[in-house]
Each structure stands twice: as C-alpha cells, then as structure tokens.
Predict the 3D structure of the following.
Amino acid sequence: MNNRVLVIGVDALDKDVVGSLGLRLGRISGLRSSGVDLPLRSVFPPDSCPAWASVFLGVSPAQHGIINFLNFADATGGYKPGMHVQDSMFQGRTFWDIAAAAGKRCHVLLPLNIAPGWPTNGRMVSRGGDPSRITSHLEEGDRFSTPLDSKALLGIGSGFIARKDLPRAIRGFEDQLEAETTLGCETFARSDWDLGFIYMSGLDGLQHMFWADHDPGHPDHKPDGPYKNVVEEGYEAVDHAVGRLIDAAGEGVTVILLADHGHGPRPWRLFQVNELLRQNGLLTVKKGARKPAIGAATLKKMIFTTVRRFGTTPALMKLSKRFPVWKKLLAPSSSIDWDQTIAYVSDLSTVKSYSYGGVRMHRPGKSEEQIEANIAEVIKVLKGALGEDGQPLFRSVLRREDYYAGPQLDKFPEILVQLPDWCGLGWETGKGLWGEGAIHLVQPGSHRFETPVCYVSNPKVIEERDGPVELMDIAPSVLSLLDVDFDPAMFDGKAFVKSYATSSTD
C-alpha cells in the first residue's frame, strides 16, 4: 500500500476564520469534510519559533528550550530574547531525520528555525541565516526545473510596515505564496518520496498587519476601509495553494494540513499586573524613585504612532537590537525594589502586548518552601482579579508544571496566565489597574492558543482519544503513518494515528 504522507504547514491558519469563510475555501473545506478535523492546541507561548520546534522534534518547549520569555530581574540578559536557535538543536532529531534513517525518502521545504539546513534523504530547502538567503541541499543529479525565486521566498522581511506601504506588503505575500507553492508543486509532483513537508509563512504576517480591517470587533475597524477584504482574500489564496499542492502529490497520499497557532486581535487594553501585585503587597516600588516625565504607555503610543506613519527600516531594526535603550525606557526593572519584591510580571518582548504571559517569583534569599507559599498566594490574587464587568478576568492561571516538564522548564515564569484576547499584560505601577495598549496601532493581529487548524485527509488512520491534539503529537503521528519504528520515549507527544499496516486491516 502507498503510505506517502504530505504535511502542509501554514503559519497562523485559524480554525475560526476558516469556518467563517466556509465554502469560499473549497479545497480546505473539502479536506475538513472528507477527512478529520482534529482539535489542536498550540504550545505555550503560542509563538511560531517554539511551536514549529515542537512539531519537528515532538517535544515541549520545556525540552527544546526555544522560549522567549524575558526576565526583567536579570541584569545580564533581561532585555535580550531568550531564543538562540541553531541547526544543531534539530539535526538528527527531527521527524524527517528519523524517517530518513529508516530508509524513507524525505523532501523538506522551508522549515522555520532551520538555516542553512543539512542534507537529508531527498531535498531540503531552507531560508534564513545571516545574511538571509535560500539554501538548497540536493542529491547528486537533482535540479530544479524552475529556478527558485529567492527574493520572493524570503518575503518582505522583519519590522513594521507603514500604512502607506501596505500595498507592497500585500504584493509581497502574494509573491511569496506563489514562490512557495511553485517549489512545493515541482517537488511533490515527483514520485520519489515517502514524506513531504512544506512550511508557508506569509499568512501570519498578513493577519498581523490587516486584522483590524478584517475584525468588526476591533476598535480600529473601518467597515468600508480599502483593506477590509485582505485577510479573507489571503485565506482564499492559501486555499488555492493547498489545492495545488495536494493535486501535485497525487492519489493515495495522506495529507495533514497544520497550523502552529491561531490568529486573533492584538490587545488594545492592558491590565497592569505589576500594579495588582503592588496593591497586594507582592511587589514594592523603590522609595523616592523618580517617575519618568513620560509614562511607558504614553511613550509606546508616541513610538507606534510614528511607526504607523513611517514604518521601520532594516537599519533601524538592527540598531534597536544592538542598542536597546528604548526597551529599558519601557521596562519596569529600574523602579522595582527587588529586595522587597516577591513577584513581578514577565514579558515576551517588552514592546508588544500579549494576552498570554507569566508571573515570575523573585527567588534570591528565599527557601523553596517560601517560594511555594508565594506562588500559591500570587495565584489566589490573580484568580481573584475582576474585569470591569465584575467577572473573573483571567481565563487561565496555572503553574508552569501544569503545562510541561523538562530540563528547560526554568525558562518559563512560575505562573502562566491567559487573559481575554482584547486584554494584554501590562507592567506599569502607580497609575491604576487599567491602561491602553499601543502596538495594535501598527500590528493589530496576534496569536491565539486554542484555534490552530489540524485536518487529516484519511479518517481510517485516526485513533480515538480524549482531549485535543498537541503540536508534540505531530512527529510520532507522521512516523506511525510511515510505519517507521521508534521509541515512544523520544517524544513528549503521542501518535493520534494508526500505522498504515494496522488501519488497512480495519
């Protein structure tokens, strides 16, 4: 029996948006209705780098350590991203490496986090590195029938796009999706593979930029604005691309259409978690500390109003990373009396607002027994926080151990929280519990934990299970479909499919 498997990864393909568009997405809707729609959760935090690492390796972020929480109390690294991703963290351990070692031919296209990549038993094409470039690892005699459009494949780059330049961003998405699809179709139309994987990244950026134009509930929504249909048209373009890839792969291929996280609004309100902790005696501000003439919220609004008009150039982004003075101006560490502080809010970027995040314990000089008591007290305070409607505000307040176990667990804050999509974690003190966000002015879309897509084309291979599928389940599931023997202890995840040998006897 032909047991080829094609995994199509689409960054931020959101189940709710797919459902709202219905038959306008003919190929994706057809895959969902004729196959299986699996409930899928992202990793925590639901960001692309840790999420795709968990897909490739089959382990949680507490195992692979690709996590971007910042620690404001760490004077040596509090303003630097916690992620330092290298190929050595992946090579030999990914699901395609394991499949290739078992003799399966694997074509792997554009996997996130991986650059420059390495030879596999088939094709590997990666993007990224420094400087950014496309790198191809081909077997002897293999050639692309159509030259790669490297410029299009690399996308429009990082940074924020000025409103006046949004048409260029739309064209960049279209060009990138076409280049990705062309590469995928040429590769998967061949018959010399058992496992195919392709990652398409542009939909995430499109939603980050145009979510307010799409979402009637967003405060910046303009029902008759010039970009009101951009997100929907982006989904339709992805639907067409998915159809082309499936057609190129041909009959008898099990298709897994997968997202790393969902997408929704960037918070436009902030709940000042540090102020809540201060009011409950869990955080102390330095006595006599001078308040800045311009508060962090006002400064952020000024910054992003300017960015909305002018955007950010690559040179400016590089300079801001090298000399992050502006981050220090926005961070709370200089005003906190660390000797008298028990807990404080953690962050994922300093500048962006997220509806998910964490609270860290300030550990120096405290016993584990004291820390455990402090964690319990902070959880009680957070669960007791009320929204302006008088109802509990936090959707989730959990210890990090309730999510994961692993050697990198200490990279997580002790307490992980989720707020409603419209509400972000703030860290200002002394100005009340509520504040206004600013990042939504230039990036109105953000990631969601509960709504990534996971559709499998072949219902016969699905194992019944309770609860949602996790991203860590993908790697063992792909290997099971390929009838590859593996040690289940290698993975945090568990296969949600039967092998072909088993399913063919049902």
Remarks:
- The two ends are 14 Å apart (CA to CA).
- The first strand starts at residue 4 and ends at 10.
- The chain has 16 helices and 19 strands.
- The CA atoms of residues 159 and 313 lie 7 Å apart.
